[in-house]
Design brief:
alpha/beta; globular
Length: 169
């Protein structure tokens, strides 16, 4: 399975495409950051996110998309901007007929690091380890996007095992 993880942000939106190979090893296909100008109008930034995510989806052909679920934000204005970016990311996936899975930050950190309150640096280090990367993904938004993809792959594998187990019961 190939999953596109998207870490939505109003200035940097990280993305990461991870594939789980037949031997269950994880492989990073692509990753990067969509950098948005804080001086550009919000509509222009949203169009850029949609365009770039659409191109990434077309190029890397993920089977699923994983994004971070809504979480507590410091203020209403930043929460609204984040909501707009999340909506555009979900739209890019929907236009490509891809299913979107949403994960809470605690679930992502637990799946990748084993501890829901892990620091950003711990997530970066574990993502680099799990994907056999030579360096930690930068900026942290890229590591978060890769972590989302890894979380979805781990969750999907667990659900498959549970379905197989329940058929044999």
């Amino acid at each position: 399975m190939r999953v596109l993880g998207i870490d939505c942000g109003s200035e940097i939106t990280g993305y990461g495409v991870v594939q789980q190979l037949a031997d269950s090893k994880l492989h990073c296909i692509a990753s990067g950051a969509i950098r948005l100008s804080s001086r550009a109008p919000l509509s222009t930034r949203l169009a850029q996110v949609f365009q770039e995510l659409s191109e990434i989806i077309a190029e890397y052909q993920p089977e699923r998309v994983a994004i971070e679920d809504v979480f507590y934000a410091a203020n209403v204005k930043s929460a609204l901007k984040l909501g707009h970016v999340r909506g555009v990311a979900m739209l890019a996936a929907a236009v490509a007929h891809l299913e979107v899975a949403e994960y809470a930050p605690l679930a992502v950190k637990s799946a990748v690091v084993g501890y829901g309150r892990a620091e950003k640096s711990q997530v970066q280090a574990m993502v680099a380890h799990l994907l056999h990367l030579k360096t930690v993904p930068e900026p942290p938004d890229v590591a978060d996007a890769l972590a989302l993809a890894i979380c979805h792959l781990h969750t999907a594998a667990t659900l498959r095992r549970q379905r197989v187990g329940s058929k044999h019961s």
